[in-house]
Structures are given as C-alpha cells and as structure tokens.
Amino acid sequence: MEQTKKKIIRIMIVIIVCITFFINVSYQEVQALTDEKLIQEQIENYARETNIDPNNITKEDILKIYDEINKQYTNEQIANIIEENTEKLQQQGISKEVIVAGTEFIRTTESQGIRDIIENDLDLEEIKEKIEQGYTPNQILKSVVKETPTEKKIEVGIKLLLANKIVKIILILCVILFIYGTVLRWRIYTKAGKPGWAAIIPVYRQIVMYQVCGLSAWLMLLWLIPVFGWLVMLVIAIMKRFCLAKEFGKGSLFGFGLLFLPLIFQTILAFQPKVDET
Questions:
Q1: Local confidence band at 145 (pLDDT 50, 70, 90 cut-offs)
Q2: Around Cβ 184, how many Cβ atoms within 10 Å?
Q3: pLDDT by residue (tens digit) across 1-49?
Q4: Alpha helices, H only, the chain
Q5: Which site from 26, 103, 109, 216 is most exposed, i.e. has the minimal number of CB atoms within 10 Å?
Q6: Among 240, 220, 239, which residue's Cα sits nearest to residue 230?
Q7: Do residues 99 and 88 make contact, with C-beta atoms less than 8 angstroms apart?
Q8: Cα–Cα distance between 34 and 238 in angstroms, integer?
Q9: Which string of DSSP letters, residue by residue, matches 139-178?
Q10: What is the DSSP secondary structure assignment for residue 213, as one 8-state letter?
Q11: CA atoms of 55 and 91, how far apart (whole Å)
Q12: What's the angle, vertex CA 76, arms to CA 111 and CA 125, rounded to 5?
C-alpha cells in the first residue's frame, strides 16, 4: 500500500517536472530534436505574448502552456520527447524511475485528467519554495510523499484511475454489459411468465431467477453461512445454468454454454424467436 501511495505522489510531481521542463527548455541549450525545437519556439512565442516569467510561473501559466502544447502534440508525442531527453532530465536531478512513471502516466491519462490534477491537487507554491531552497526534484518528491495526508493520496489515486484511458474504457464496457445483461434478464423473465421489471430490482432479481430456474429462493440464505454456505452456493450457481437451460427446453450442452459463455447463450434464450417446449 505504501509503495502505491509513493507511486501516486511520484506521478503527481513528475507532471510538474515534465511541464516545467518544456517551459524552461527555451532558456537552456536543449535543441537536439526537430519536434523539440518546434515546441521550444511555440512556448517561447507564447511566453512572450502572455508575459510569462519563467522564474515566477503560476499554476495558471502551466495550465495555459500545457493547453498550447496539447493543441499541436498528443500526450503520446509529449511522452516520447520527454523520454528522448531522459539523460538531460537526469542531469537536472530527476531520476529515471520518476521519468518512466511520468511518461507512462501522460500516455495513459486523458488531457483533462492531467489538467484537473495540476489545477486541484498540486501545491505549486510549496514546490517552488523547495526548489528555491535547493531541493532536487527527487527530494521534493520524498518531501511531498511524507507531508501529503493519506486521504489526499487516496483522492488523487481515484482521480488517476478515472482519468486513465484504459480504466475509462473498461468502466464504459462494464456499464454497457450491465445494461445489456439487464435487458437479457428482462426478456428471459418475461418469457418465463415472470415480471420483466424484476430485472432492475436488486436482490429481487435474484429471487426471480431462482424461481425461473425451478429452485427455491430460500437457498440464498446459505450466503449467511461462512465457508460451507459459500461453497454450497458456488455449486448451486453452477446448477442454476443447467436448470435454466432445462426450463427453456435446452439440453446439457446448452447449460455448459450458459456456464462458460453466459452472455452469448443468454442472448439466444432472450431473443430466440420461439422458446422450445419442455
């Protein structure tokens, strides 16, 4: 758990470090890559137009510059440029571990998620103060890890998860599958002569499913018996598939289909034009 907390804070810091790198790059000797040079010119022009002082930069300035960079470059391209400058960043006191964690975060996190963390969860003034005191980025990281309350770490961790592109896709798929599964149950209940709306009522939907399968809903009380009851319920959960197949006039093979490929075989039960006679 402690390692996870440290990783969360490490990622928070690296965003500031990496974006600050882009801000300050115009004032350093880094000019190796064409893409990097273009970013330098854009940031330099933007800094001149908006009168941004790199020595007195604010969180709003960082967000504006991040938005400007994001108009021309994807997070993937930004991460690639940071990776290609790993050696130079290490010379500035940033460990390779931090850079790797940060670039991975930039790649997998939506831009709005990054903005939200910068805007609401980073104490830029504290970081700037530590920089003025001579702290290296890694020392700042350790300091923030130590000083950030557990509640804040958990809050940021949840934000990171919700902002992660892969996690967001998984959550969307889960919602779609849940809705589709509810539709399937509704149709199955209706075909079995039960009220379809039972599919949207927690607990009751399970009771109705037991009834459709020809089993007593009282069996659900076995969940209240630790270990033994849970093992019995596992067996019953398997039996339910075969009972459901039987109630719809299907054989054992169809029961195995409901067990191992439930979504496909429940779809067949729900949308088949005619229910087989038992």
A1: low
A2: 20
A3: 555 544 444 455 555 555 555 444 433 433 333 344 554 555 555 555 5
A4: 2-24, 34-50, 59-72, 75-84, 86-91, 96-108, 111-121, 124-132, 137-147, 150-163, 165-191, 204-212, 228-247, 252-260, 262-271
A5: 216
A6: 220
A7: no
A8: 61
A9: HHHHHHHHHS-HHHHHHHHHHHHHHBHHHHHHHHHHHHHH
A10: T
A11: 20
A12: 50
Give the contacts of 223 (CB within 8 A, at least 6 positions apart). 229, 230, 233
* Location of structure tokens 């195995």: 256
CA angle 120, 125, 126 (to 5 degrees): 100
131, amino acid identity: I
Residue at token pair 């963390």? 117
Encoded tokens for 227: 């270990």
Terminal-residue alpha carbon distance, the chain: 54
Sequence-distant (6+) residues with CB within 8 A of 11 are 101, 102, 105, 160
For CA atoms 28, 31, 37, 39, give the dihedral sign. Answer: negative
| 37, 114 contact by CB (below 8 A) | no
Would you tell me the crossing angle of helices 2-24 and 124-132 to the nearest 10 degrees?
A: 70
Question: Residue 96: what pLDDT?
Answer: 77
Distance CA 225, CA 243 (A): 24
* Residue 94 zone, left/alpha/beta (φ > 0; ψ -120 to 50; rest): beta
Buried b (16+ CB within 10 A) or exposed e, 60-72: ebbeebbebbeee
